[in-house]
Sequence to fold (277 residues):
Amino acid sequence: AGSGKFFVGGNWKCNGTKESISKLVSDLNSATLEPDVDVVVAPPFVYIDQVKNSLTDRIEIAAQNSWIGKGGAFTGEIRLLNTGCICNEVANLKIPNIQHVHFSVCSVEQLKDIGCKWVVLGHSERRHVIGEDDVFIGKKAAYALSQGLGVIACIGELLNEREEGKTNDVCFRQMKAFADAVPSWDNVVIAYEPVWAIGTGKVATPQQAQDVHVAVRDWLEKNVSTEVASKTRIIYGGSVNGSNSAELAKQEDIDGFLVGGASLKGPEFATIINSVT
Ligand code: PEP
Fold:
């Protein structure tokens, strides 16, 4: 791990029931966590209030998405795009003339109102399943930051992009979209999440992750500033679990993790949090 405070986020995605979440919260409340680690969990929107009211204040809450501007007349936030759709789920809805639909998002104001401190933006499931583009994600990041939410800004390449040697190009393009939009990097954590490693059980090797983290840090140095490059935490996500986190955490430029599946198990998530070196 680098010099910044280790940061571990748990992305619960669209999982859980009132009952399973209450068990997870109680496991997290009773876990012993390294004091020098920032810990954040991102429950599904409908359970944020339950989690906020029952989880220890030691752990902060993130939303899994937010709207690009002030809330208001956006019923169910359905947005249409003219770009091609790569999403079977959406295509299967067979809605005429609609290539993309974006469902259910909350305004930044509402997220703050219910106690969120962070929002995850640019997650690969939003980029590649829902079809959010770089500019749209950048706008969301800028608005969230302007209102005082921290942003967990996700980047990462698809398998074919890695195989074609385009990993850095893709990550740099996604970084540029954030850089073009955000007023400051003070409240941003970058999550490098290779898409081929997310939810697949195929974790990047510590060296693969380290190489991209260094490249992203260099990009920040050249395109933003030396200060931002050295201060900004770059966390790794993609099939992190209690057995592989310690090796990953040894890498100089891995400043923490964004964890999906394994964050749904309290004791395992605690192991990952405590793998800081
Ligand atoms: C994620 O959803 O951000 C993620 C990294 O998922 P998983 O840990 O399940 O691969």
